């Protein structure tokens, strides 16, 4: 079993903006600040996606995506960027680079 910090309350067990309801206890972890999982959580990274803008034909920072690998980040970028010839991006020009936040 793997002990994983609760994402909703960041491990505190309490969500301050809900103090008026059940003293702000996080319902995801029931106030413990962590969850027990059977499988090891996968690591996710942030990737900066650049592409050539159709209208200006210049490379621009298009979006950031969270993914487990560069390949999945490229797939997510292709699905979310518009291929519209006037306002979209050239989907063949997509480049993905891992960034630290």
How is the secondary structure organized here?
Blueprint: E1 2-5, E2 34-37, E3 45-53, E4 59-67, H1 70-80, E5 89-99
Antiparallel strand pairs: 1-2, 3-4, 3-5
What does this structure look like?
A hairpin with a 5-residue loop joins strand 3 and strand 4. This protein has a three-stranded antiparallel β-sheet with strand order 4-3-5, with helices on one face. It has a two-stranded antiparallel sheet with strand order 1-2. It is 11% helix and 37% strand. The two termini are 29 Å apart. It has 101 residues and is mainly beta. The protein is elongated and about 55 Å long. It is built from one helix and five strands; from the N terminus they run ββββαβ. The model has no long low-confidence stretch (mean pLDDT 89).
Largest sheet: 3 strands, antiparallel
Number of helices: 1
Residues in helix, %: 10-25%
Mean pLDDT: 89
The rounded distance between the terminal residues' Cα atoms is: 29 Å
Shape: elongated
Run of helices and strands: EEEEHE
How do the strands of the widest beta sheet line up side by side?
Answer: 4-3-5
Low-confidence stretches: none
Number of strands: 5
The assigned structural class equals mainly beta
Radius of gyration from the alpha-carbon trace, in angstroms: 19 Å
Keywords:
101 residues, three-stranded antiparallel β-sheet, 1 helix
Give a short synopsis of this structure:
The chain is mainly beta. Helix content is 11%, strand content 37%. The chain has 1 helix and 5 strands.
